[in-house]
User: Fold these one by one.
Assistant:
Number 1:
Amino acid sequence: MDRNVESQVPERKTLDYERLEIGEPLPSYEYLLTQEMLEQYRQGVQDPDARFPTIAVKADIGAYHRKYEDAGSVNARCAYHCYNPPVAGKKIRVTAWIADKYVRREKPYIVTEAVSVDEDGRLIDRVITHELKRPREVGKKWGR
Amino acid sequence: MGTVMRFEVGMEVPPVSKTLSQEHLNLFEASGAHQGPSIFTDPETAQKTLGMGRTVASGRMTLSFAVEALRRFFGGRIYDHTGVADLRFIRPTRAGDTVTVRGKVSGVTPEANGSRIAVELTVQNQNGETTAVGGGSAIVPAGFLPSAE
């Protein structure tokens, strides 16, 4: 199975923020969690006991980008709920949706949410992400 | 023989510190199967997308450090099944930075067969600048005896 989720992206459409609907489902997808992914994650976060490599998969954003393309975004807030550590060698199924959208200080945000379940039906995690859909604001404030 | 874990408001979560290299950022992105150039791995993409000439670390790396701090505090048997971490990112983290996650118990709320222990979290870089704030929690069963992990 191709583990590169980006390579499996179907035809996408350009984001129209005004038309985006809260509750709108995003495409579900599956990927194989490999031992290599687990080991790379543990090396990346410098934690040999790390148990949730699914954090790095960015499941909700992966689903979003299967449907939409845009000018990029910045992670403004992220919540992660642990239910059961995933097992390498198992397929993981991601179900995701648009949880909210809002404008704060004249900047548009999108909230995506995803739940991951493995091939045995074990609930793995839930992730909720608030993305600022105007990424150059970061460069304006912090660029150097 | 273990001892009963007691969580009280004000109790400190042992800090977790990480110094990040570009290689760590690359490994993190690769582990999630994100293989193309991105704001996390490619300065040119960071410039084009963010208007910044340097890569930034994914907020989810900082989130992973918070998860580690909370897992070590509560123990994996609790945190891996009931844990939550929720961070707002307020300043970018870059390769070369050292970030430290600190936490303190902020609330103990009874739930069925246990208590939800809430923790306030702050993440700072090597300059003492706050990069993220938020919280976390886990549900600790009543009378839980932790394993020696």
Number 2:
Amino acid sequence: MTIDAAANSPVVPDTAKGPVIHPAWVRITHWVNALAMFMMIGSGWQIYDASPLFRFIRFPPQIALGEWLAGALLWHFAAMWLLVINGIVYVTLGIVTGRFRRKLFPIRPREVVNDFLAALRGKLSHDDLTVYNAVQRLLYAGVLLAGVVIVLSGLSIWKPVQLKYLTAFFGGYDFARYVHFFAMASIVGFLTVHVALALIVPKSLRAMIFGR
Amino acid sequence: MPRQRKPIPGVDPKLLIKDAAKLLPGPSRRLFLRGAASLGALATLTGCDIIDGPTAESALRVISRFNDRVQAMLFNPNTLAPEYPESAITRPFPFNAYYSQDEAPEIDGGNYKLEIGGLVDSKKSWTLPELYKLPEVSQITRHVCVEGWSAIGSCRA
């Protein structure tokens, strides 16, 4: 496979003709997910404001989506289809093609610490974009987990009667709201780092658009 | 438009907002309705400010109706909400009101009539003594507000 070949090549030349870093299905699901996340998080903030969990955290309507509670709920329950269907396609292909196994694992704590320290010193290499460093692996696997948690906890607060066992699994309706909130917070935290680093290393952004 | 009312086990945010959304079919009507008495009911339900939504809402409402059909297929309408012991009741029980307590209108119990409208078989109105004569059932369940908060209360009907 192209990906294996790419993983074995020592250095990816910084030209448009390098090996494929992200196959088309990764790029398509990535940008569809970006759109879905934008809509889900934006409308989620507006919904949150109707009954904030924390007195000191409110989202200004200017950065939220839907203008009012009912409008935001309509956005949230429309964009959920995009998020979930796209997510299922991405996770299925990620498992079936072996991309997750190859790219995200193994995650070794010692390597994570070493790579994190190297990143802080600005010494982490980005020469070969086909291989994720340990911090990337941890963050990408972690945000996938957060994605699963946010969807399941979301289902549990959407249908606390029909899915009462799922709601109970998340510690009951009220607690599940906190789980849903903190899953959102971790995803937003991830996105902040993710977008910042994509801008610092522009060729990684180019790879996610053009594949190489 | 034909409307279907299903029994709601517990309070379902999605159905509640669907009903609330139906009260406001379009931006123009919404403008007309703003401040009108019928919005009082909506404000009571949602407790939130009524702001003009984007026109995108009408398109989103099409998806919402699709969601309703999918939910009707996926879920069992006879599923009952979990019940709780009396000790679990939230006190004081939070609620949203259209007016504050001292602004609440005085109602003469003798003249009071509960009027029934909408898609129901019997549109008879009810006086207080008639209501008191009805058989009573009570249930301690979690009330989930469309706003997100929830509280356990004893509902008597």
